[in-house]
Amino acid sequence: MAGAGKSSGGSGGRRKGPTRGTGGKGRGSLTGKGATPPAHMRHWYKDRQQAAPRTAARPGDQPARRPRRDENTPEVIGGRNPVVEALRAEIPANVLYVAHRVDNDDRVRDAIKMAADRGIALLEVSRDKLDRLTEGGVHQGLALQLPPYEYAHPDDLVDRAEDAAETPLIIALDGVTDPRNLGAIARSATAFGAHGILVPARRSAGVTAGAWKTSAGTLAHLPVAKAPNLTTTLRDYRSRGLFVIGLDGTADTNIADIDLATDPLVVVIGSEGKGLSRLVRETCDTIARIPIRAAAESLNASVAAAISLYEITRLRHP
Kindly report the CA angle at 267 between 263 and 273, in degrees rounded to 5? Predict the structure, then answer.
C-alpha cells in the first residue's frame, strides 16, 4: 500500500530504535545534591519571601484589624439630609464641603446658606475628595466636617452642679459602645437636668458624628467627661459625697423606690447585653432595677437612662 514502506532520503525520516545506555560512564550525574541548606544559608530566600504575592486569607486566619481612629481626627457627616439636620441643630462645624457641579436642590441651598450665616468655611472639592472624607459613605455631593470633641474632666461635672447651686446628677456609662445611644442619653439627660455624662476612656462610645446627630444638638450644651478608669472615678465621686446607683435587672429595689433620689447622684447605665461589669457593680452604693415584663428581657441603654432620669426627677420634685 502506498505510504506504508520506509521513507527514502536522509536519516531524518528514519524511526529511532532503542538508545544505548551510558555503560556506567554517567553515574556521577545521578548523584544527589545533598540536603537542602537552612534558610539563613540560602541567600535568595529572603528576597523570594519579600517578592512573594500575598495570598487570600485561609480558614482560621485572624482578620486584619482596622486601624484605630485617632480622637483628634475631625468627624465628617455625609449626605444632604444629615448635613442639613446637623446645621439646623447648630452642631459645631468647621467646613462645609460641596462637590463640583453638584445638583443644586433646596437642601444644598439651605446648607450653604446656614453655613454662611454661621461663618462656616465653604470649600468646593472633587467627588473623589468627598469619597475619601466620608470613607466611602453616601455623601450626595455634600459633607460637613466637625471639630474634634473636647472632653471635660470628671470633676467638671460636679463643679457644674455646684456652680448652679443644684444637687449633682451625673450619668455614667459602663460598656455602652454605640455612639447613637450616647447621643440619645445626652438628649434625655439635658431634658431632665443632668449635669453631664461620664464615659470610660476605653471600650466605650465617644462623641462622634453619630452621637451628635442623635443628640439633636444637646451635646453642645451638656458636657461629656472621659474617665481613665471608670471604677476609680466612681470612687472619687463617692469621696466627694456623691452616691452611686447602678441599674441592673436582677436588683430587688425598683428605681421608683430608691431612698437616695434627693442626694447627689451618679446613675450608672450598663450595656444592654452584659449589664454592669463586676468591679463597677461592687463600687455602687445600691443597685436598682426598672420593672419590665419577662418577655422583653432588657431595655436599650438610652431607654433605661430616660426612665431612670424621669423617676429621679419625679422623686426630687414631687
Answer: 160
211, 306 in Cβ contact below 8 A?
A: no
HSE-up of residue 80 (Cα within 13 Å, Cβ side)? 12
pLDDT at 156 exceeding the cut of 80 = yes
In contact, 116 and 159? CB cutoff 8 Å: no
Dump the DSSP string for 250-289: T-SEEGGG-S-TTS-EEEEEEBTTTBS-HHHHHH-SEEEE
d(CA 67, CA 179): 18
Q: Is residue 40 over pLDDT 50? A: yes
Confidence of residue 138 (pLDDT cuts 50, 70, 90): confident
Assign 3-class secondary structure to 75-86: EEEECHHHHHHH
* Residues 282 and 234 sit within 8 Å (Cβ to Cβ): no
Q: Which helix (H) or strand (E) holds 127?
A: helix 127-133
Q: Rounded to an integer, what is the distance from CA 91 to the centroid of its chain? A: 20
Confidence of residue 19 (pLDDT cuts 50, 70, 90): low
Pairing mode of beta strands 169-174, 196-200:
parallel
Pull the grid cell for residue 113.
446658606
- Non-local CB neighbours of 259 within 8 Å, separated by 6+ positions: none
For residues 148 and 212, what is the distance between their CA atoms, to the nearest angstrom?
12
Quickly list DSSP for 135-158. TT---TTEEEEEPPP-PBPHHHHH
Report the alpha-carbon distance of residue 99 to residue 316 in Å, rounded.
52
Other beta carbons less than 10 A from residue 158's beta carbon:
22
C-alpha cell at 49: 519571601
Pairwise CA distance, residues 314 & 305, whole Å: 14
pTM score, whole prediction: 0.71
